[in-house]
């Protein structure tokens, strides 16, 4: 059970990080990116290839994020002056182009060139080959406690000060119920992390889980600071009507490019964690469906709301695992048809949410970018 919860936490954290990058691009800036998985692909493969050559994993992940940002620069320089629908089409094409290049090219490794279709494996993973000392466990527990404390403090502020009521028009009772559910989730992850760290030899990915949670917290804090700064207010103005900031002397194209690159860098770092979780990477791991998942997470949680993105990731993976485990007992279909049926149900639920609450769970209707 502990191992399963660790896997679920890592999966949720990776796609929460991945979706935070998309939320910056679309939710705050209004840039429609249907090829977000391209950044994850670049980050994952760069991290893996560099780690095979002995580059420290942290450095390899940062370089992967930087190259993903560079990809964002190359895409942005040629496409960000296009209209939204053309930008969406170009990003889809770029994501498929990146995947097909990886699939059809030979990848350099210390043992020679490997065909991309064969994938990469046997690369170093973070914090798996160490013998944890009491100091290591103490630091890991302290980091996990800090992240859990930050989450609980944020939830308490949201319920007590009425932040949710102002932003989402929820009643106090609704906010309290959501807060209780979120507290239960945070405490479950915290207790799972403590149990795994105490038996590290059995749950070697518990260290990866702690590092991922810390990275998600840091990226969340950074984005919250940025979107509340003058820079973030310019992004929101661009999303609403880019002619207004342009009339005030702002370089709209440069701001769009910055948001596109930063969102790509975040997705690239998420790609590094994705590769570490899988332990082997293949081009088929980076198909357009991953971008579709990120869009579901952002739309369900609430565009232009980073807390909503985290909540959307939790809701999405709760649905994923619940249907994976319980749907076969209800619907008599084979595995292939069952997977297609689950996608159909996701689409149906998404349509219901769009009718009932188009701004998402925590989004503001006045900030909705759909249909603009």
UniProtKB/TrEMBL annotation:
Keyword Transmembrane helix assigned: yes
InterPro entries: ABC_transp_permease (IPR001851), LivM-like (IPR043428)
GO-annotated molecular function: branched-chain amino acid transmembrane transporter activity
Main location group: membrane
Any one GO CC term of the record: plasma membrane
UniProt topology in membrane: Multi-pass membrane protein
Assigned keywords, A-Z: Cell membrane, Membrane, Transmembrane, Transmembrane helix
Transmembrane segments: 6-24, 31-52, 58-79, 86-102, 135-156, 176-196, 208-227, 259-280, 292-317, 338-356
Location of this chain's protein in the cell: Cell membrane
Record has Repeat as a keyword: no
Protein name: Branched-chain amino acid ABC transporter
Organism this protein belongs to: Aliterella atlantica CENA595
């Amino acid at each position: 059970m502990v191992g399963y919860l660790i896997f679920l936490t890592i999966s949720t954290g990776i796609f929460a990080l991945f979706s935070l990058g998309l939320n910056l691009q679309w939710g705050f800036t209004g840039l429609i990116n249907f090829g977000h998985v391209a950044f994850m692909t670049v980050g994952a493969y760069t991290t893996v290839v560099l780690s095979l050559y002995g580059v420290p994993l942290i450095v390899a992940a940062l370089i992967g994020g930087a190259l993903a940002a560079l990809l964002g620069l190359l895409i942005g320089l040629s496409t960000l002056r296009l209209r939204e629908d053309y930008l969406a089409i170009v990003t889809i094409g770029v994501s498929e182009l990146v995947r097909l290049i990886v699939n059809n090219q030979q990848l350099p490794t210390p043992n020679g060139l490997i065909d991309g279709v064969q994938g990469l494996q046997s690369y170093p993973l973070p914090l798996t080959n160490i013998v944890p000392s009491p100091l290591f466990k103490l630091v890991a527990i302290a980091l996990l406690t800090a992240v859990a404390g930050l989450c609980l403090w944020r939830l308490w502020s949201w319920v007590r000060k009425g932040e949710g009521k102002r932003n989402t028009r929820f009643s106090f009772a609704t906010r309290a119920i959501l807060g209780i559910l979120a507290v239960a989730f945070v405490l479950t992850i915290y207790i799972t992390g403590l149990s795994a760290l105490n038996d590290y030899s059995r749950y070697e990915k518990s260290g990866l889980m702690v590092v991922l949670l810390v990275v998600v917290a840091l990226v969340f804090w950074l984005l919250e600071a940025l979107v509340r700064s003058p820079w973030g207010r310019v992004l929101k103005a661009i999303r609403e009507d880019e002619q207004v900031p342009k009339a005030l002397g702002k370089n709209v194209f440069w701001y769009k490019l910055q948001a596109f690159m930063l969102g790509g860098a975040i997705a690239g770092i998420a790609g590094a964690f994705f590769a570490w979780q899988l332990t082997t990477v293949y081009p088929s791991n980076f198909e357009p469906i991953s971008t579709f998942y990120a869009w579901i997470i952002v739309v369900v949680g609430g565009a232009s709301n980073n807390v909503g993105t985290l909540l959307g990731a939790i809701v999405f993976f709760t649905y994923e695992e619940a249907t994976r485990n319980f749907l076969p007992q209800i619907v008599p279909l084979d595995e292939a048809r069952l997977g297609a049926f689950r996608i159909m149900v996701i689409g149906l639920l998404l349509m219901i949410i769009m009718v009932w609450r188009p701004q998402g769970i925590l989004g503001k209707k006045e900030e909705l970018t759909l249909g603009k």
